[in-house]
Amino acid sequence: MSLPPGFLDELRARVPLSRVIGRRVTWDLRRSNQAKGDWWAPCPFHHEKTASFHVDDQKGFYYCFGCHVKGDALTFLREAEGLGFMEAVAAMASEAGMAMPERTPEARQQADRRGQLYEVMEAAVRWFRLQLQTGPAGPARDYLTARGLDGEASECFGLGFAPGARRALTEAMLAKGIKAELLAEAGLTIQPDDGGAPYDRFRDRIIFPIRDAQGRAIALGGRAMDPNARAKYLNSPETPLFDKGRNLYNLGPARAAVGKGQPLLVAEGYMDVIALVRAGFEGAVAPLGTAITGDQLRLMWRVSPEPVIALDGDAAGLRAALRLVDLALPLTGPGQALRFAMLPPGLDPDDLIRREGAGAMRQVIESARPLVDLLWQRETEGRVLDSPERRAALDHALRAAVQQIPDPATRSHTEAELNARKRALFAPLPREAAGAPRNSGTRRRGAPAAPAPARAETRASVLVASDEGERLLEGLILAICARHPDLVHGLEGRLERLDPSDPPRAALLHDLLSGRESPAGRAALDALLDDPHLRTAPPLQGGAGPDLAGPVLQNALDKLEARRAARAELVRAEAEMSGLVDEGLTWRVAQLAQAREAADRPQWNDTADLGEDSEALSAHLSSLLEDEVWRKKRT
């Protein structure tokens, strides 16, 4: 259906964005400016206590500084309420008192047909529920009771029973005046290829109604009572109402629970979801008979920024988790993460809860692992990494995986985490363990003895232990950005990688990136401007403009990144040279570090390089390595 020009603009003008969103949030009235249409609230898309969700009525847009969701009123209705585009338009039109444009005959016919299918599905669900109370459903009731589901649980989830007769549902629906073609279009009956009479798709099965985000029945799932049935679980086929790759079981109630602070849990099947909900984990959903799809991932992220994937603790569950890694990597980013809760071997959520209680399930959820853990496990488990070629193959596989991540900051942090794990994996073994196999088979039995750790004198050298130069550069970068906020634009990715370890500085960085001001960030800035090494810097003086501050900021970022990269390489080199160090190397490295530290002191009159002769230092270090100063010279 097409809308006339200007209709959406008129709609947005009549309905303030704050009125649409206000039904789902609690405004922070101390921070909001109602007169100007400037509103703040805790974000409805992720769990938080602070008001980082901003609504601007004048511009008609919202933005969360925490999870970075953004959009207008229609976007909010689609993302938060699960409405389709035209449904969102109709909801806003009703709110504004505007009549929807006349539909074309084809659009009216399609809408009417969908309405009829919804009615057919609801009629079938009611009939199946009645059948669960009949005599033939006795084994089904016994099965549900054995699984811990009483009448209250069956009522809550609308469970039913499909009799074994070939046309039981068909005859009942025809008797109600429902046309046979509607039953077939809704996926309730099957038309034989030989042209015979249609028969019921679901027979001798426990019925699980599948509903959309608005609570409308769109499909059915059936669990076979016959242990010899060809399919233990059977779902409705694709219909005008049902796309199994774009829906989730229990989505509507789970979304409401997540809005109240519950985690979004993704289990494998209907019984797992029901067990989780009855154990108090009301934000549980499940895919519908297939592996999780990209559309389902996006649907989950509309509900929660970090769903927890609770997979069965068997080989199939682990394989499903590892497959999901490849699907999720090109989609992940801020506000779109995953965690994996791996259950004990041989148990699914239903088994674990019935055997050990809700507390055991809670522990599994709380120990859920991030996606990077699964990626690392997939690429290293069972691999022997005892040669440069095999390690290079690992590097290539990890690099290819990380390059799929579209968000630069997420990609950078993931790469840093994997590099740290590689350094730990490839670090030399202690001498006494030289003959033992390495983790993941990386060191063969009988390999040459590993060198002893570096001496304390070397570890205490200025080059290894001192980070004052980096702290000074970090402070300079933050102070310049605070004094010249226009320079932040375009450098967000590099600034995010600063990752200050000092909490006040981290708060200041968050303020700079979000355009806010917090007490902790203000205190950090005051401390930087009082620093005797920084307060005389020309870029921080009152008359300094971006023409001066910009080049200094860029150079400081280059220097800090280079220093951190060099430090990482030195740590690796130290590990490789452990046990081969003598006092000569210790003294030379200390002298080199002292010279570098002196060279690193800011020379504000030399903004092009801040006073460091990088080529000379690089040449000096190269000469030390070429001379193999750590080896004893023969006399």
UniProtKB/TrEMBL annotation:
Matching PROSITE patterns: TOPRIM
The entry's keywords: DNA replication, DNA-binding, DNA-directed RNA polymerase, Magnesium, Metal-binding, Nucleotidyltransferase, Primosome, Transcription, Transferase, Zinc, Zinc-finger
EC number of the protein: 2.7.7.101
Functional description taken from the UniProt entry: RNA polymerase that catalyzes the synthesis of short RNA molecules used as primers for DNA polymerase during DNA replication.
Cross-referenced Pfam families: DnaB_bind (PF10410), DNAG_N (PF08275), Toprim_4 (PF13662), Zn_ribbon_DnaG (PF01807)
Assembly: Monomer. Interacts with DnaB.
Reactions it catalyzes: ssDNA + n NTP = ssDNA/pppN(pN)n-1 hybrid + (n-1) diphosphate
Cofactor note: Binds 1 zinc ion per monomer.
Keyword Transport part of the UniProt annotation: no
Region called Disordered, residue ranges: 422-460
Cofactor: Zn(2+)
Domain characteristics, as noted in the entry: Contains an N-terminal zinc-binding domain, a central core domain that contains the primase activity, and a C-terminal DnaB-binding domain.
InterPro entries registered for this protein in UniProt: DNA_primase_core_N_sf, DNA_primase_DnaB-bd, DNA_primase_DnaG, DNA_primase_Znf_CHC2, DnaG_bac, DNAG_N, DnaG_primase, TOPRIM_DnaG_bac
PANTHER family, A to Z: DNA PRIMASE
EC top class, as a word: transferase
Chain ranges of zinc fingers (CHC2-type): 43-67
Protein name: DNA primase
UniProt cross-references to NCBIfam families, sorted A to Z: dnaG
One GO BP: DNA replication, synthesis of primer
Domain Toprim: 262-344
Assigned GO CC terms: cytoplasm; DNA-directed RNA polymerase complex; primosome complex
GO molecular function: DNA binding; DNA-directed RNA polymerase activity; zinc ion binding
Family to which the UniProt record says this protein belongs: Belongs to the DnaG primase family.
